Amino acid sequence: MKRRNFAGLLLTATTGGVLAPLLAKSTPDLKSLEVTPLVDTGLPKNLPANIKELIQNVLKQEFSVVNTDWFGSIQVEGLLRFANRGFKEGFVFADKWFKYHVENDGKLTDAEYFKQYEGPKARILRDGPLTFVIYSANLGVSFPVHELYKITKDPTAKRVCFDVADAVLHYVGRDRFGMLAHDDFDYMKFTIPDSAYWATRTTAIAATLSTDPKVADIYWKQSLFQLEAGIKHFLDKDKKLVRTGLFNGENATTYWCRSQGWLLWAIAGLLRYLPKSHPKFKTIAASMKIIADGIKQYQSKNGGLHVLVDDPSTPEEVTSISMVLSALKEGVRKGWIPNEYDDMFAKAWLFIQKSVGENGNIHNAYTGWAVPAEQKQVNKMDERFVGFVPGIIMVAADEMTR
């Protein structure tokens, strides 16, 4: 599918074209654009040995088989989190991964491209440097690409970040509330909190990269809209938990464990880039605290979350508490929420470590997704290897070893 070259025009404009008179005004929070020095110091010394094995398992994969869907992109982002702290192997893998997909994916037929990932066969966008599909989970490709850009200043990586954000602005399916839909085909059937994450963070990244404040405002507006809609429709403020989603336009009847993580990641995915002086910053941070208080109440005795958070008869689960932990720990570290969750963090981190074997293999992972969770299929534990599981653990491990 071809589309107009909006991102190309944007990059031309912001490097001395017709919008040059506006360039004296920079987008706030340019810290996110600083180059990270790559001094090779290896993995953090306080990282547990089994988590180091998990990371080595990720690195043993051939980078070309790690896809650009969330199953692959979250693994690459996890590696880059440690690369930013001096783990050069993580950067080398990520750089090879990105260059491979830029070179290779545009050569694939639609059928060949679809074989790379498990999700719905949505429309494919082909006119930028990276071919990608607008199935919602594939939009997360811009997250590790942005981290690469901060290190390399590669204009191709920058262009990809704009291309993905422009897809959210112009091409994706939406539900009747205007939220990013899961995919092209079920956009009226259900909407789930992960969509808030993909839409919010992609457009926030583009806003920080835009040197023209008028263009940046367009991305900020979309990012804020998507997150505020997600908070409105998914967060049960009375129960202080996140609903599994909307199904046929109605609130879910369950509170799935990873839904808590998805909405927290969406909130962090905006606050990480939004200037603290923004008038909506405190209100959004307050929603993070509501969820934190709910997690504090419902955390399992061993430190995880139950697959259905408010149902202690369902299994204890590790990916959800890892998502929650990483977002809330970052929130405390950066002053978005009060520092009053140390016990919850300690229990969660211990549960995560106990869920990773000495060989780096992970158990206690719910390998289903939102729809079966809403149908109360709660025993889909460790059914198969899925790439997002080690990726999530790496993100949490990075945050807990800072």
Folded structure, characterized:
It is a single chain. The protein has a single domain, classed as Glycosyltransferase, CATH 1.50.10.10. It has helices spanning 6-13, 49-59, 70-83, 88-104, 110-114, 142-152, 155-170, 193-209, 213-234, 257-271, 281-298, 318-333, 342-354, 370-374, 388-400, and strands at 124-125, 132-133, 190-191, 235-236, 241-242, 246-247, 250-251, 305-306, 316-317. With 402 residues, it is mostly helical. The N and C termini lie far apart (43 Å). 50% of the residues lie in helices and 4% in strands. The chain has 15 helices and nine strands. α3 (70-83) runs parallel beside α6 (142-152). It is globular. The longest helix has 22 residues, at 213-234. The strands form four sheets. It has a three-stranded antiparallel sheet, with no helix packed on it. Keywords: Hydrolase, Signal. Residues 1-20 form the signal peptide.
Q: Brief overview, please?
A:
This protein has 402 residues and is mainly alpha-helical. Helices cover 50% and strands 4% of the residues. The protein has one domain (47-400): Glycosyltransferase (Alpha/alpha barrel), CATH 1.50.10.10.
- CATH T-level topology: Glycosyltransferase
How many helices? The count is 15
Number of strands: 9
* Biggest sheet overview: 3 strands, antiparallel
Q: Quote the beta fraction.
A: under 5%
What would the average pLDDT be, to the nearest integer?
Answer: 91
Which structural class do you get from the secondary structure elements? mainly alpha
Order of helices and strands: HHHHHEEHHEHHEEEEHHEEHHHH
Number of domains: 1
User: How do the strands line up in the largest sheet?
Assistant: 3-6-7
Low-confidence segments: 2-35
Distance between the termini: 43 Å
CATH architecture level-2 label: Alpha/alpha barrel
Q: Which percent bin holds the helix content?
A: 40-55%
Using the coordinates above, name the CATH class.
Mainly Alpha
Keywords: Hydrolase, Signal
Organism: Pedobacter petrophilus
Protein name: Glycosyl hydrolase family 88
InterPro entries: 6-hairpin_glycosidase_sf, 6hp_glycosidase-like_sf, Glyco_hydro_88, PolySaccharide_Degr_Enz
